[in-house]
Amino acid sequence: MRRASTFAAILAFVFLAACAPQQPARPPQSTSSGEAASSGLATLRKLVNANNYRSMGFESQDEVNSGSLGDPLHVFLVRLDLLRQFQPGGDSEKLLSDIGEELYPVLVNGAPRSAVLVEKQGEQWSPVSYGGANLVKALAQRRAGNSAMAKAAAPTYFEVHVAALNMYFLGYRQETKFMLIPVIDDPKYKFAAGTPVPAAEAFAALVPAAKAVPMDKPL
Predict the structure, then answer these.
(1) Is residue 146, in this structure, part of any structural domain at all?
(2) 3-class state of residue 138 by DSSP
(3) What are the CA-CA distances from residue 165 to residues 56, 68, 137, 144, 214 (Å)?
(4) pLDDT tens digits, residue range 25-83?
(5) Strands 158-162 and 167-174: what pairing?
(6) What domain range includes position 61?
(7) What's the total number of domains in the chain?
(8) Is residue 218 situated within a structural domain?
(9) Is residue 151 exposed (0-12), middle (13-18) or buried (19+ Cβ within 10 Å)?
(10) What are the b/e assignments for 29-62, b being 16+ CB within 10 Å?
């Protein structure tokens, strides 16, 4: 079991490391997230070349030119200090910090390939990073699977990032319940990719790991 958990942790690290997007200089700001994402898509087309098209999520260099933007996921951060203090039965919604980011998948023939992340500063939006192919593909897969099962519209979903633990979830609300969908298997916490978990249960399971993180670690 210990070797299996270690192997799973290594796989998770490799997966999430591949999620890391590229961050070139920012283009001009826009008044809406959609405009910023469109500007970011134009930048992404310039970034992709013969050497990096696969790492950016595309199957060919030319494929990026036929890419279009899909429905965005609003991004919420779970801060380390708040997670450390979370108590079983507590209000899991209070752990969500709105950091003013939206993740736009870049689709080719309807399939996710890459992403553009946009950020709001004041009243203006800017694209801030590009790529993150593994993450956006996993999020899109979980969203499509859960949406088909729950018959929920795509905009009801959002990304939940526990940055200090390098973990990502797809979040949604089912009636009055806040639910999280793990994007990858994690035997350590008994998370199964694509299987919804009440957010309060998921966060409670992460508290010991959060408390073990050095106090000087950001977020």
Answers:
(1) yes
(2) helix
(3) 24, 31, 20, 25, 11
(4) 556 688 899 999 999 999 999 999 999 999 999 999 999 999 999 999 999 999 999 99
(5) antiparallel
(6) 2-212
(7) 1
(8) no
(9) exposed
(10) bbeebebbbbbbbebbeebbeeeebeebbbeeee
